[in-house]
Specification:
Rossmann fold; single chain; 264 residues; seven-stranded parallel β-sheet
Length: 264
């Protein structure tokens, strides 16, 4: 299937590891020009080298670059995106989730920090990139959030709250932008083999007294697939959603969770 991503420019956030990195590589393999965004420049350079070895048959025509930005500083992000003078057809909003813990014990600043890093920064990027998408009559925005927007997850109080806000923001945006050929969708990863998951497993182990291996087995058994996802599997779903083939898919939540979420 030709996904029509050759010569498309993609901004991929949180792209030095996990789902973000896998998505950057998947899009590059389909012919897109990638701009990586993260706060660690050394890691960005490492991923950039990997992109240079992508499998696209016309890879010599591609141009990949990166932007160093910290999502805890929205103003800095705004300035750096505007200074880049780059135009993008595709935006992948993706950043690390808030720390776990009961919602009752959460401090106000935890909500504020998560709201800033997820919703505010997403909004800044959309406002900067959508005018070009409208001009071209083609735009794809995918927000990597969580299955918690369908079914809140125990022990992730702040995350459940903020992910829900992002999902509602996204649906509203999809309604406004659909007429311009711009789609906005959410991908909801389940248990995915990333550093984020390792942190959650360690936290559960410390709180329950179970060993790391016991926690892993328990978590895998909650999923019909009986395993964790690979980041590449989530990246493949994202790659389809940003393609020309997904032109009439708009305003939806797509769980990539091996069937774990119990709601339809």
């Amino acid at each position: 299937m030709n996904l029509g991503l050759h010569n498309k420019n993609a901004l991929v956030c949180g792209s030095t590891q996990g789902i973000g990195k896998a998505t950057a590589i998947a899009l590059a393999n389909e012919g897109a020009n990638i701009t990586l965004v993260a706060r660690n420049e050394e890691k960005l350079k490492e991923v950039l080298k990997e992109l240079e070895n992508c499998q696209f048959k016309h890879s010599h025509e591609q141009e990949h670059t990166y932007i160093v930005a910290d999502f805890s500083n929205p103003q800095e992000l705004k300035e750096k995106i505007e200074a880049s003078a780059l135009n993008f057809h595709i935006l992948i909003n993706n950043t690390g989730g808030p720390a776990g813990g009961p919602i009752f014990n959460a401090k106000l600043e935890e909500f504020e920090n998560a709201f800033t890093q997820h919703l505010k920064c997403n909004h800044i990027l959309v406002q900067a990139l959508v005018p070009f998408m409208k001009e071209k009559g083609f735009g794809r925005i995918v927000n990597v959030i969580s299955t918690s927007v369908k079914q809140p997850l125990d022990g992730l109080g702040v995350s459940n709250t903020i992910r829900g806000a992002v999902a509602s923001w996204s649906k509203t945006l999809a309604n406004e932008l659909g007429q311009f050929g711009v789609t906005v969708n959410n991908v909801l990863p389940g248990f995915t083999d990333t550093e984020r998951l390792n942190s959650i497993i360690k936290n559960k182990s410390e709180k329950t007294g179970l060993s790391i291996d016991e926690v892993i087995v328990t978590m895998k058994n909650t999923t019909p697939a009986k395993r964790f996802a690979k980041p590449e599997e989530t990246a493949d779903a994202i790659t389809f959603l940003v393609s020309e083939k997904a032109s009439y898919i708009n305003g939806i939540n797509v769980p990539v969770d091996g069937g774990r979420t119990k709601s339809l």
